[in-house]
Amino acid sequence: MNRKSLIIIAWITFFIGNAIFIFFVPVKTFQMYLLNMLIAGMYSFTIAIGNGLVNDYLSSKYSWVEETRKRTILGVISTILINVVLVLACNYANYIWFQKRDPANFFSGSMGFSNWITINIALLISAILHAKGFIDAWKSSTKQEVVQQKLIAKSANAQFESLKNQLDPHFLFNSLNVLSSLIDENPAQAQRFTASMSKIYRYVLEQKDKELVTVEEELSFAKTYCDLLKTRFEDSVSFEFQVNENDLRSYVVPLALQLLLENCIKHNFATSGKPLHIKIYSENGNLLIENNLQQREQVKESAGIGLSNIVQRYSLLTKQNVFIEKSSSFFKVKIPILTQKTSAMNTQPSNESMAYEKASKRVKELKGFYSNLISYCLVIPFLIFINLRTSPEYYWFFWPMLGWGIGLGSHAFKTFGVSGNWEENQIQKILDKEKYNN
Questions:
Q1: Any idea where the Signal transduction histidine kinase internal region domain is (predicted)?
Q2: CB 127 within 8 A of CB 55
Q3: Which CATH architecture has domain 151-336?
């Protein structure tokens, strides 16, 4: 119990004590006022501090978020026990010690009815406090989850931007190397290469800031880039395109083909006698770049940007993997064709996303149950009071108390019992089945 809680209890004591003194105390003297405030304080501080200590102890041992069911069950049992004990103790002190009534009638007549009403009021207040503690715990957990996901998203975006920023200087560096070779070998081709390179570089500047481009756009650029390579290598390199029409409107990461084509040229030798054949085609939801393996004996040390760049960019956008296949005769890279645009912000794994959605749904269910419980504890005592005031000879309050109680029990069973687990198990079976089929 902190200082703020004690101040709140003091204010509650002040208002309750004054209300009882004004409406229910027949003899209004200063001595009676002080006695009334003392009794009100005894009830408020004893019951509030007792419940607060129990609530704090249970919260320190059992988390509302991770052990919701156990925390709730223990909270209900301990709350009922502690309130019955504390209320009876306060009522005994009030009626027997202060008012000097007969102890033999403590559990009957007006004292018995007062015990029952006071216990219900105490349980109502305790239920509100437990519900508040539950909501505060879930709010704190949800805020932490949101902060963690934002940090993950920001980190992923930073990585993605860093990877995209590699493309601009990488392409320019390799293109200038090709141009440098052509200037010595064939100045006329170098002029044509320079003109083509300006068009291609415009595409690089336009697309490098995008997360995804259509397969059709990437293929169009790749064909232009292949024409540029043909300018240098002539009949030493050949290209073949066989991409399904249905895949043209899907998506790949931008400049992936250009990087992979560069890898083919960089790591393989190509001559008129032994041409390098590069094939680009689609198969089973993947875009494949395959070449006959004619590996160079000595490869100039590379910056390691090309293939690793593609792998990392895909890992930030999707759980589908980039596959590399190598044999003695060919080298093949498979990059996933994505059917819809994604965002680097959507970086949390699907199981975390499902867990977060499940947690949010669970919060709504528990809030609904506690709202129902609080309403029950508030309305039923009021109906009992009306019943006993208007028609004490017929206890009609049992019918709404019983009907609503059955509904409340069913709600509790659905929220904390077997039903919820059964639904979760069935959902998991369906998800596992869909995952297996995919």
A1: 158-236
A2: no
A3: 2-Layer Sandwich (3.30)
